[in-house]
Design brief:
This protein is α+β, with helices and mostly antiparallel strands. The protein is 43% helix and 23% strand. It is globular and about 65 Å long. The termini are far apart.
Length: 424
């Protein structure tokens, strides 16, 4: 069976993803709003706050007891950037109705609980509890500090910040420690109401049978809200072309340097529009068959690792590498040399075949878990294609399309994170 899409109410779509391989049903509520640098920190904290308690289950102990009653159902949440929109997800995974001991409907009850968390949070006189806010602020700050301590991830974050400047896509999703520290109930209540009223919403269910009551519950809840100014799902903000390559060097207490290169691309959007970009980045710096792995890492031994990845939603490619300081510029030159080779068509058809097999194998893996399937259909907006359909699109990409994709790549920003010197 294939994906079924239907409208629940204004700006709210239902996605039923049939899959009978699992003994559980995963239901997620996905809300998309425009990126806003000023509110992103509060928007990131909100789903963690909402998933920790609600009006009916006002602390985590009561909520966990309810989850245990639902045969050990699992709650999940996340906050991420999806192109030029911010994507907030809250979900619950629960045992299928046919495994219920008493003939009830755990799926419908789980949908009720998820709706309670989203639509009826634990407010006190219209405000979130200061204790609940402080708890989630502390956890968010720990996530931020963890990002800073992971220097590869930190270099990636800094590259995006330098590359996109004031564009909110370049901002770290969780915000800064200072921004999180200043979040109060007014900010969170404002974000919560704006989400329910203006977000484009996608309710997804991965299940072996159609969870009608779950979709009906969400439809009823959203119909009771004054929906307006629904987020545009097609909006795209192009990164202005740099007049010259931005080159940034920062020094930290690290033993291994990090290098992150940001490239703009002529391709962006759906997989149908930019499949060649996905294959290009894989041939350039994907698996062990890629040019960056074979030549820069193995033959020239210039780095500890060197990989390329693309973000089709924003039309850019990123190359990341672990380096010794004396090799930093050599790696930049080698990366650009390998890109020029692809532009000239200097790569074997066997590399294309290996890349296509690697990419399509990864796509087949989305069917291995409900969470992966849900992620596939909620990560990006636009016309959906199944992982199987995506594989067909990838297999049809030609050598010429890959070369043209490479010709549309331009270096925008170089970010170096290097060890501190003795006198610093």
């Amino acid at each position: 069976m294939s994906l079924k899409i239907f409208s629940l109410t204004k700006g709210v779509d239902g996605y039923y993803i049939p899959n009978d391989r699992f003994s559980t049903t995963l239901i997620t509520c996905n809300l998309y709003i425009p990126l806003n640098a000023e509110t992103m920190a509060a928007e990131s904290l909100l789903p963690y706050l909402l998933s920790s308690c609600c009006e009916k289950y006002r602390d985590y102990i009561d909520l966990n007891i309810r989850l245990l009653e639902l045969y050990g159902a699992d709650l999940s949440c996340s906050a991420t950037k999806s192109g030029d929109r911010f994507h907030i997800k809250l979900g619950i995974n629960v045992i299928n109705d046919k495994f219920s001991f008493d003939g009830g409907s755990p799926v419908a009850e789980a949908a009720d609980l998820l709706c309670g968390l989203i639509f009826a949070p634990a407010l006190e006189n219209g405000d979130f509890s200061p204790l609940d806010i402080d708890r989630e602020k502390r956890k968010t700050i720990e996530r931020i500090e963890g990002e800073i301590n992971n220097k590869r991830s930190f270099a990636r974050t800094r590259l995006l910040a330098e590359m996109f400047g004031k564009d909110p896509f370049g901002k770290f999703s969780y915000g800064s420690v200072d921004e999180v520290s200043k979040i109060d109930s007014d900010a969170l209540v404002s974000v919560w109401r704006r989400l329910l009223e203006t977000a484009y919403v996608r309710i997804c269910a991965v299940s072996g049978s159609y969870p009608e009551k779950a979709f009906e519950k969400f439809a009823d809840m959203f119909k009771s809200i004054p929906r307006h100014d629904i987020t545009d799902t097609d909006y795209f903000r192009e990164l202005p072309e740099a007049k010259s390559v931005k080159d940034i060097t920062e020094r930290f207490e690290v033993t291994q340097g990090k290098l992150a290169l940001g490239f703009t691309s002529d391709l962006h959007g759906s997989l149908k529009e930019s499949a060649a970009l996905s294959l290009l980045s894989d041939i350039w710096g994907g698996g062990p068959y890629s040019k960056l792995f074979e030549n820069v890492r193995e033959k020239e031994s210039l780095c500890y690792y060197c990989s390329a990845s693309s973000r089709r939603s924003k039309g850019f490619v990123m190359v990341e590498s672990g380096i010794e300081e004396q090799n930093a510029q050599k790696v930049v030159d080698a990366v650009l040399r390998e890109l020029d080779d692809i532009k000239k068509g200097n790569f074997d058809d066997s590399v294309i075949e290996a890349s296509k097999k690697s990419v399509t194998d990864a796509l087949a893996g989305y069917y291995d878990s409900a969470a992966a399937l849900d992620a596939w259909y909620t990560r990006e907006l636009g016309e959906p294609v199944s992982p199987e359909e995506a594989s067909d699109i990838i297999m049809k990409v030609s050598r010429e399309e890959i070369i043209e994709a490479a010709k549309g790549i331009k270096l925008h920003t170089v970010y170096r994170l290097l060890p501190k010197r003795g006198e610093e």
